[in-house]
Design brief:
It contains nine helices and 22 strands. By secondary structure, the chain is of the alpha+beta class. One of its GO terms (biological process) is glutaminyl-tRNA aminoacylation.
Length: 458
């Protein structure tokens, strides 16, 4: 990694040479005056000052002898051009602020329009890649290199990557972070590399996504977020071992199973795992107290409902069929707090519904508690950038849900930061850096369902 500040001395020396060649001058116009003269295509009154005078004044700027805002170094380009980016752009400004890398050595700093092309040339860059909004700056890029007789990299512009339901503008991203609308640059809801990494998105998935969409000069393309998620899902389906986690636990007491009996059952890490391959299996306890998702129980059954209901049977994944015999209500007489059920040890019952579950590891002991964070689209509309000043009003208030005490199978207790899993029926998850020895934290990367379609404009 290199920085423009690595070349501050080279840039200064080349600015002196530019003045000596008659292609730059020290100007004293205010920003307002510069703007007005550019709009009228009028030269600065100091444009034709003697070279020696500009050299002395530029040296005074460097030595800190001129106040901030009282002078700039401008390139002597073409004030009559049809391209406004040739209207004598500023090369140097005075700023009495220490630099993050150079410290307080300098009080004049080069502009992007001056430094960009020169540093590319000094570093022998073969191709300088920019997004389309910089296309009109290509004339200034080559003008300066020609004026100094420097090597020309090839400049090539392409359209920005625009993804639905988010913002990619650095200015907008910075505002979201600094104003605390999100939890930092690595917030998993952001499309920053740090955010994608924390969400569990792999570099190979990003590369596959980029290869899939290709490069275009069309500036109106909007890529569906679901397209990236599809690549992520495709990879994690092959690489993330399975586990069972219950987000909103509902207690189920199996009345025809002995209180102190604990069975050790085999669960599959992979869909095609063979029963004789112990490396592809993990152990789960099964006892008379298990927990299912609260959303997997209803008091009223329906034809298209495959969850548990009074008098109805479901299959507990890797275990046995159970049949609901009673629902216990809480003090409010409305909320079901416990289900009584019977299990079928012979497995003669063949219910259609299959539920994930977590059991007590031993009588009276709760399963492993973990924190689960569910992330959704950061913005409600596909293109929040179109909303101008109202873009913040489009933030999705439900883009982050924290479940502080989900129940997980014990095999997850040794998971490390960055480990990825498929939580059966729930989606793909990754261990977050906020995890501690006392509690694991999981971020949902993507859901299981793939809503992306290859047709249309997505």
């Amino acid at each position: 990694i290199t920085y423009t500040s690595n070349y501050f001395q080279d840039l200064y020396d080349l600015a002196v040479e530019l003045i000596q060649r008659g292609h730059a001058y020290v100007d004293h116009q205010t920003p307002e005056e510069v703007k007005a003269s550019r709009e009228k295509k009028e030269n600065s009154p100091w444009r034709d000052r003697p070279v020696a005078e500009s050299l002395k004044l530029f040296n005074d700027m460097k030595r800190g002898l001129i106040e901030e805002g009282k002078a700039t170094l401008r390139m002597k380009q073409d004030m009559q051009s049809d391209n406004c980016n040739m209207y004598d752009l500023v090369a140097y400004r005075i700023k009495f602020t220490p630099h993050p890398h150079a410290g307080d050595k300098w009080c004049i700093y080069p502009s992007y329009d001056y430094a960009h092309c020169i540093v590319d040339s000094l570093e022998n860059i073969t191709h300088s890649l920019c997004t389309l909004e910089f296309e009109t700056r290509r004339a200034s890029y080559y003008w300066l290199l020609n004026a100094l007789g420097l090597y020309h990299p090839h400049v090539w512009e392409y359209s920005r990557l625009n993804v639905t339901n988010t913002v990619m503008s650095k200015r907008k991203l910075n505002y979201l972070v600094t104003e605390k609308w999100v939890d930092g640059w690595d917030d998993p809801r952001l499309m920053t590399l740090a955010g994608l990494r924390r969400r569990g998105v792999t570099s190979s998935s990003i590369n596959a996504f980029v290869r899939g969409i290709g490069i275009t000069r069309s500036d109106n393309s909007m890529i569906a977020l679901e397209r990236l998620e599809s690549h992520v899902r495709e990879e994690l389906n092959k690489t993330a071992p399975r586990a069972m986690v219950v987000l909103h636990p509902l207690k189920v007491v199996i009345s025809n199973l002995e209180d102190n009996l604990i069975m050790e059952l085999d669960a599959k890490k992979w869909p095609d795992a063979q029963t004789d391959d112990t490396s592809s299996l993990y152990k789960v306890p099964f006892c008379n107290t298990v927990y299912i998702e609260r959303s997997d129980f209803r008091m009223k059954d329906a034809k298209d409902y495959y969850g548990l209901a009074p008098g109805k049977s479901v299959m507990l994944r890797y275990a046995f069929p159970i049949k609901c015999t009673e629902a216990i209500y809480g003090d409010d007489k409305e909320t079901v707090v416990e289900i009584r059920a019977e299990y079928d040890p012979s497995k003669t019952t063949k219910p259609k519904g299959v539920l994930h579950w977590v059991a007590q590891p031993s009588p009276g002991v709760n399963p492993l508690k973990v924190e689960v964070r569910l992330f959704d689209k950061l913005f409600r509309s596909e293109n929040p950038a179109e909303l101008d000043k109202k873009w913040l009003d489009d933030l999705n208030p439900l883009s982050k849900e924290v479940i502080p005490e989900a129940f997980a199978v014990g095999s997850l207790c040794n998971a490390a930061v960055g480990d990825k899993f498929q939580f059966e029926r729930l989606g793909y998850f990754v261990v977050d850096p906020d995890s501690t020895s006392d509690k694991l934290v999981f971020n949902r990367t993507v859901t299981l369902r793939d809503s992306y379609t290859k047709g249309g404009n997505k």
